[in-house]
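Customer ticket, subject: "Can you confirm the structure for Trans-2,3-enoyl-CoA reductase b?"

Message body: Hello, I'm evaluating your service for our small team and ran a test protein. I'd like someone to confirm that this is what the system normally returns, since I don't have a reference to compare against.
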Amino acid sequence: MDALALEATSGKKAANGVAVAAPLPVQAPVKRKPAKKAKKAVVFFEVEILDAKTKDKLCFLDKVRTYFFCFFHLFKTDPQWYPARQSIRLDPKGKSLKDEDVLQHLPVGTTATFYFRDLGAQISWVTVFLTEYTGPLVIYLMFYFRVPFIYAPKYDFTTSKHWVVHLACMCHSFHYVKRLLETLFVHRFSHGTMPLRNIFKNCTYYWGFAAWMAYYINHPLYTPPIYGEQQIRLALIIFLFCQIGNFSIHIALRNLRPPGSKTRKIPYPTKNPFTWIFLLVSCPNYTYELGSWLGFTVMTQCLPVAFFTLVGFIQMTVWAKGKHRSYLKEFRDYPPLRSPILPFIL
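Agent reply: Thanks for trying us out. I re-ran your input and got the following:
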């Protein structure tokens, strides 16, 4: 009996006297509504901002949800305090809080006290680097071409008879052109700005040393290295090797940080053999930088170059130790075998 016949005899007796039951109605599946997510309670803070030096109250903010709001309120209070110029801390002499810090994760109650310090006028890191590196490039070339008022008038626009002088000019120019291109296309800065006053200090260092080195290397009375071509060629190999190594490290560090982020990761060696030094050193970019200037010192056999290399090594050691300490503090699984700048030594 098909469904239609069964439905026609519903509630009646069949021919043999047996009652036929009507089919049960089919119920449609019940759709359950998704459970509503519980809304997180919004926490508001009362924030008091004091001057870090005088302890004077600058402002009091009510119903604050994000720490970054403090920057914009101070900027609204005084337009000269734009966010990059502000340093807000939990302690007057403590470290500045980071932009990504969240009020709920800071060791403060619902009523928080912050201390404000004016960092002074700011300038972008890109501008600083371009200024620092353009100066030495131009200054060195002025001495190389012996423009007037540098040496005696009879030497104006003359050229040196020693090929090492021309090689040194190419190496020096290559180094700073590389730095300029890396600033524009490779480096990703965790901080967008630095105090404006630092540019004068940095330029004095780079420009001053460039002029001092160039004066003696391009001097008409300059004498080539003692061991001649063998010494120069060995120094050139060291210089080029370290320049390639330095560039390789900068590329590896760039790839660790996505564009527009401040993410920090542990750098590890890549397929590039020049990055394998990461197994032993935390800041191999400084290691290769030191090697480049050691090669340039051997190539030119010039005392001002040696002094510049020494001063640069001291400064890079300070930077490398600071970065090494921050790596150890931030990452518990940081490789213990690494040294800051020189494997097993420093």
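A couple of notes from the result: The beta strands are 45-51, 57-64, 86-89, 111-118, 122-124, 193-195. The radius of gyration is 35 Å. Feel free to reply with more questions.
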